[in-house]
Amino acid sequence: MKKFLKKIKNVLKRIYRKYERAQYRNRKYVNCYRVLSPEETIEYLQNNTVCFCRFGDGEIAIMRGESIAFQQSDSALAERLKEIIKTNEPGLRIGINYMYFNPVDSVNPYTQKFFEAMAMQRRFMIKNCNKDVEYIDASVTQLYQIFMEYDFDTHFKKMQHIFEGRDITVICGRGVIQNIKYNALDVCHSVEYIFAPSKDAFSQYSDILAKAMGIKEDRIICVILGPTAKVLVYDLFKKGRIAWDIGHYLKDYDAYMKKNPRTETEIVQFYRPD
What we know:
This protein has helices spanning 2-25, 38-47, 57-63, 75-84, 109-116, 119-128, 143-146, 152-163, 175-178, 205-213, 227-238, 249-258, 264-270, and strands spanning 34-35, 51-55, 92-96, 134-137, 167-172, 190-195, 220-224, 243-245. It has 274 residues and is an alpha/beta fold. The protein has one domain. The strands form two sheets. The protein has a four-stranded parallel sheet with strand order 1-4-3-2. Strands 6-5-7-8 form a four-stranded parallel sheet, covered by helices on one side. The longest helix is centred in the N-terminal third of the chain and has 24 residues, at 2-25. The mean pLDDT is 93.
């Protein structure tokens, strides 16, 4: 009987996944939330100096009580993320992935399957986001990994314009920059690095925040620390600092400049902890 019930359960799961993929392709979710497109997001960031943090599948997993490759499950972190994703305060923009709700053309096949299969994550976002918030797109820092065909030259020129001439301090794990040949931050006036744990950064959050608060106030703080980055950006925002959660941007620019292939193997490797 147990084997029979298990088979029925698996059949029902397959039917639901097929139904969910069809619902996504038929644009059922496009009106769930107002999310700026990648192009609208970059235009906004070019014209407005604000703090921003981005939520993706890793943050969803943590909020659901799960662990991910570079962050163990942490209830305190989960509660902070649930608070931040609903925030609607002037000077802080929250990003969620535009493609979670809006199917688009020219996405690479592996990523397309990923977006279509995100039934559980979409349900979670629909339940936990804020209908009053206009979200920006979280994926602008990794478009090279998402699209097969796109005007990447224009995209990266616009992204670099956001950083051009700025004084930047990056808080990240050491591995982030070790394998980068083409650094997108070369357009900045100056760049400093403060290193933090690549894994389980939230376990040392107090020390990381203290170091961030020691950065000169005229510098923009860019954070590459997975889910912990969202909390750090938010807390720095509340203390009057400018902070950006730039996620995979440095790796994405480097991959584009190297013309790395976007096969399933390469994409999976791209998202592994540094």
